[in-house]
């Protein structure tokens, strides 16, 4: 049996030691449901947190809706939950006093999830419940529900569950919460549990606990589940299976048969997923009858409704196709429509991916998955590049603004020199004008020519320092035609600085000349040959 679990960290929800207890209001005995169709359902637990009961790790004992979902799912994989008394299977002290209590008094044969309304602290709320069906002997049933004939009261009218953390022994993977056992008790820890309702299943009633290893096991399982006599022929079994397939597509009110229960028993016998649909379960039965080996070990082919082996290759039905592809379908027509719709979707996908007929789809999808995985990395790199580009652009903008500011200051110096203005008095105003409207500034104050600047440079009032420098260096006085000579000096000095890789404005050249710098001194200072 696959998917068996190991019991790790058993959690007892019944009292593990003598301690003061408080219970909710008593629950009156309800009339048990009818025993037909597998026996009555009874609530064995509900989602709750017990603030008065701490576990070994200090946390509160609790049952969550997730725990209930996992118990139902795991029970479909491994339906082995015994019915014992007072948790004697997990409490050594109880088992020593009453060893017979640890022996199974019956078994849980079905689990499902339900709901109930509880009133806690004056507020009503709907909680998830765990409901079970039991298979017990007549004597145990009387101990649970009492004997109305003799008016004997029940001995164990309530229950308390024990859960465990399941681990798949083959894969080591966690299975979540499993129902380890259900204990009969007279004092349940869960105060709002109703009294138990149990049924005695007939000896031949259809709960199958054997292994299915061959085609004969499948037929035996069907005889048991469908309550057929042991001598029922194969043809009769297959006929009943076809009837079940027909009734599964109808409501219980219309058919009068609880097909859900029958399908559930077959699902558990075949070890199928609890979420498999009725059509998928029945298709799995057909597949098992077709593919499992016969008595001689050889595979047997089977045609519907015939006991004689069919040597021809069986035609694959749409229901079987739908079951293999996990497509829910109630009947053959629905399965055909679902399979055709899936095929059309596949064709649309191939068209979108521009795949030729016969070209493998998996490789192209793998490429898309790989590309999708690389996309976040590309986005990060793109964001980094954009940030770098933004930083570079901001740096260039700042550098351009600085160059524009230097150029404007140079122009203001030239304007003041050309027009004979006092730089200290009007310089800031001219700078503000140029910053606010550079085009208007350039229109009103066009660049001065070299001759104009040279003329202004010869103004005696502005050449006081030049005269002083000239006397100090004992240079000859300027001869007539000094205007041309000064402009030539300015041009030559700018040329020397340009030769050394520096850009010297006219106003800066005039300033250098006023401080007495000569062409020869500039070449020496700039280390030019």
Question: Which descriptors would you attach to this protein?
Answer:
two-stranded antiparallel ribbon; alpha+beta; 529 residues; 4 domains; disordered N terminus; 14% strand
Characterize the structure shown.
With 529 residues, this protein is α+β, with helices and mostly antiparallel strands. It has four domains: 8-15 and 31-185, no CATH class; 215-352, no CATH class; 358-447; 449-529, no CATH class. 46% of the residues lie in helices and 14% in strands. The chain is built from 18 helices and nine strands. The strands form two sheets. Strands 1-8-9-5-6-7-2 form a seven-stranded mixed sheet. A hairpin with a 2-residue loop joins β6 and β7. α8 packs across α9 (318-324), α11 (361-419) packs across α14 and α16 crosses α17 (506-514).
Topology:
Blueprint lengths: L7 E5 L29 E5 L1 E7 L5 E4 L1 H13 L4 E4 L6 H6 L8 E15 L2 E14 L1 H8 L12 E10 L6 E12 L29 H11 L8 H15 L3 H4 L3 H11 L8 H14 L26 H7 L7 H21 L8 H59 L3 H14 L1 H7 L5 H8 L6 H9 L9 H18 L6 H9 L4 H7 L4
Parallel strand pairs: 5-9
Antiparallel strand pairs: 1-8, 2-7, 3-4, 5-6, 6-7, 8-9
Helix pairs in contact: 4-8, 7-8, 8-9, 9-10, 11-12, 11-14, 12-13, 14-16, 14-17, 16-17
Beta fraction of the residues? 5-15%
The string of secondary-structure elements, in order, is EEEEHEHEEHEEHHHHHHHHHHHHHHH
* Assembly form of the protein: single chain
Cα distance spanning the termini? 101 Å
| Averaged pLDDT | 75
Derived from helix and strand composition plus strand pairing, the structural class reads alpha+beta
What's the arrangement of strands in the largest beta sheet? 1-8-9-5-6-7-2
Q: Which geometry do the CA atoms define? A: elongated
Largest sheet: 7 strands, mixed
Q: Helix fraction?
A: 40-55%
- The total count of helices amounts to 18
Low-confidence stretches: 1-37, 199-206, 296-316, 460-484
The count of DSSP E runs of length 2 or more, i.e. the number of strands, is 9
In the residues, how many domains can be counted?
4
- Radius of gyration over C-alpha positions, nearest whole angstrom: 49 Å
């Amino acid at each position: 049996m696959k998917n068996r679990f190991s019991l790790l960290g058993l959690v007892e929800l019944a009292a593990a030691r003598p301690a003061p207890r408080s219970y909710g209001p008593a629950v009156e005995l309800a009339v048990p449901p009818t025993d037909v169709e597998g026996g009555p359902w009874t609530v064995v637990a509900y989602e709750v947190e017990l603030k008065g009961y701490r576990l070994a790790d200090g946390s509160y004992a609790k049952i969550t809706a997730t725990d209930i979902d996992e118990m139902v799912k795991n029970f479909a994989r491994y339906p082995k939950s015994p019915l014992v008394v007072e948790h004697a299977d997990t409490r050594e002290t109880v088992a020593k006093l009453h060893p017979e209590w640890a022996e199974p008094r019956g078994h849980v044969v079905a689990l499902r999830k339900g709901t109930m309304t509880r009133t806690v602290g004056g507020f009503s709320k709907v909680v998830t419940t765990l409901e079970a069906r039991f298979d017990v002997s007549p004597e145990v049933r009387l101990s649970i529900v009492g004997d109305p004939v003799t008016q004997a009261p029940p001995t164990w009218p309530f229950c308390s569950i024990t859960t465990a953390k399941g681990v798949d022994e083959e894969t080591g993977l966690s299975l979540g919460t499993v129902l380890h056992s259900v204990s009969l008790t007279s004092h349940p820890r869960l105060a709002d549990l109703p009294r138990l309702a149990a049924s005695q299943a007939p000896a031949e009633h259809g709960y199958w606990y054997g292994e299915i290893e061959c085609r004969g096991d499948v037929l035996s399982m069907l005889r048991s589940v469908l309550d057929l006599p042991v001598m029922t022929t194969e043809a009769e079994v297959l006929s009943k299976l076809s009837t079940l397939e027909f009734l599964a597509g109808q409501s219980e009110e219309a058919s009068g048969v609880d097909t859900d229960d029958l399908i559930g028993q077959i699902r558990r016998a075949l070890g199928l997923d609890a979420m498999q649909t009725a059509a998928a379960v029945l298709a799995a039965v057909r597949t098992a009858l077709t593919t499992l080996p016969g008595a001689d070990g050889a595979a047997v082919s089977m045609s519907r409704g015939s006991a004689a082996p069919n040597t021809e290759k069986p035609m694959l039905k749409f229901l079987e196709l739908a079951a293999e592809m996990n497509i829910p379908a109630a009947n053959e027509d629905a399965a055909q429509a679902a399979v055709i719709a899936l095929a059309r979707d596949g064709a649309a996908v191939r068209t979108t991916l521009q795949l030729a007929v016969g070209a493998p789809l998996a490789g192209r999808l793998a490429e898309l998955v790989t590309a999708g995985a690389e996309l976040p990395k590309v986005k990060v790199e793109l964001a980094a590049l954009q940030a770098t580009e933004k930083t570079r652009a901001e740096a260039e903008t700042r550098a351009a603004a600085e160059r524009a500011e230097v150029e404007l200051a140079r122009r203001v110096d030239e304007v003041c020199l050309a027009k004979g203005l006092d730089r200290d008095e009007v310089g800031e105003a001219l700078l503000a004008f140029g910053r606010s409207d550079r085009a208007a500034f350039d229109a009103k104050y066009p660049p001065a020519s070299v001759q104009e600047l040279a003329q202004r440079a010869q103004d005696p009032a502005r050449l006081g320092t030049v005269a002083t420098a000239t006397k100090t260096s004992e240079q000859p006085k300027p001869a007539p035609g000094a205007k041309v000579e000064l402009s030539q000096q300015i041009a030559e000095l700018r040329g020397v600085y340009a030769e050394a890789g520096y850009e010297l404005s006219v106003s800066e050249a005039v300033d250098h000349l006023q401080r007495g710098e000569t062409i020869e001194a500039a070449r020496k200072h700039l280390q030019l040959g």
